[in-house]
Design brief:
349 residues; alpha+beta; Phosphorylase Kinase, domain 1; Aminoglycoside 3'-phosphotransferase, Chain: A, domain 2; two-stranded antiparallel ribbon; 50% helix
Length: 349
């Protein structure tokens, strides 16, 4: 749907724009600007491309007021301060949660790999090396740029958060999407896994994390990477962003590329913390297991509650990643049978 000055407030609201959003855009870009909805993510935020002549910008509609030290505001400040390639903020309207950003286009790293990566593996490799450099930059400089009142100083990817995500997975994937009711014995085994995994991930060294450092949030614009969807950045395990990037539930990556990037991150991130190869690989698997389980919960929720069936396409890949990790460690062999029956089934949708 395209919107312009002639649209009513009712039309504006129905399109996902709060009253006053059009006036905000027109006031910044000019009265001739048009707005067209663009695909968003799994959040409730809405996105529109504003166009005036040959110039474009992205309007983000948060849906709630923007506070001074919210994730949106403070993480933008931190990432800009440390030199991360986030899109430039053009204007912001706090009351209705409106932000106009520089337009980084529609070409994500995910699309590069899916559409043309096979034709230019060198290009994909170079982009992933840049992405790993960005992880290293965020980890090395991010925490020092935080203020005590910032969102990332007050929120962490910790045991409590991980348990919340495990419960979300249990509710929306096992019981919701798959419609399975675990037995008392299976409930005990699952709860033990949730508790142990949450505690293990919480015990990893903490750094500043983007939190959703996946290929679809890395935009390729003018040959450079741009980083979007940063409002939830916070302190968390040092392998969190690496697991997000290299064990991406939305993308098949050549294992040779993954191994090369892991070697690179070992040299740039793990070594800085005094962590060796074996420990780093173990910590990466821990974090990938937690994130992949969390992802299944998201996919189940999006498919059943939000009716976004396209998220079902990501499930087999995510199940395969979980299966690999569970089978790789003796400590998970007891839970594997229950997990295979309850989670790694193909019967969904």
């Amino acid at each position: 749907m395209q919107m312009n000055r002639g649209q009513s407030d009712k039309d504006s609201l129905e399109s996902g724009l709060p009253s006053g959003a059009l006036d905000f855009v027109f006031g910044v870009l000019g009265p001739g600007a048009t707005l067209a909805g663009i695909a968003g993510d799994a959040s409730t935020r809405r996105f529109f491309r504003a166009t005036l002549g040959g110039q474009t910008a992205i309007l983000m509609v948060q849906g709630t007021p923007i506070e001074a030290h919210s994730g949106q505001s403070s993480n933008y400040r931190v990432l800009r301060e440390i030199g991360a390639p986030v899109p430039r903020m053009i204007a912001q309207e706090d009351r209705h949660g409106l932000v106009l950003f520089e337009d980084l286009g529609d070409l994500s790293l995910q699309k590069v790999v899916i559409r043309g990566g096979g034709d230019d593996l060198g290009k994909v490799r170079e982009l992933y090396l840049r992405a790993c450099d960005l992880i290293a930059l965020i980890q090395e400089k991010g925490a020092a740029a935080l203020l005590p009142e910032d969102f990332a100083s007050r929120n962490a990817l910790d045991r409590e958060r991980f348990l919340y995500e495990m419960d979300h997975f249990d509710r929306h994937f096992i019981r919701g999407l798959l419609r399975k009711a675990p037995s008392a014995v299976e409930v005990t085994l699952l709860r033990r896994l949730y508790e142990d995994l949450a505690a293990d991930c919480d015990g990893l060294p903490r750094v500043y994390c983007h939190r959703d450092f996946q290929s679809r949030n890395l935009m390729v614009h003018d040959g450079q990477l741009g980083l979007i969807d940063f409002q939830d950045a916070r302190m968390g395990p040092y392998t969190y962003d690496a697991a997000s990037l290299l064990r991406d539930s939305s993308l098949d990556l050549a294992e040779e590329l993954v191994e090369e990037m892991l070697d690179y991150l070992e040299e740039t991130c793990a070594a800085r913390l005094g962590i060796g190869r074996e420990e780093f690989r173990h910590d990466l698997d821990l974090m990938a297991l937690q994130r992949n389980i969390k992802d299944l919960g998201t996919f189940g929720y999006m498919a059943t509650v939000r009716r976004r069936k396209e998220y079902l396409d990501y499930i087999p890949r995510t199940q395969a990643s979980i299966r690999r990790i569970l089978l790789s460690y003796r400590r998970y062999h007891e839970i594997y049978g229950a997990f295979k029956e309850l989670v790694l089934s193909d019967a969904y949708g």
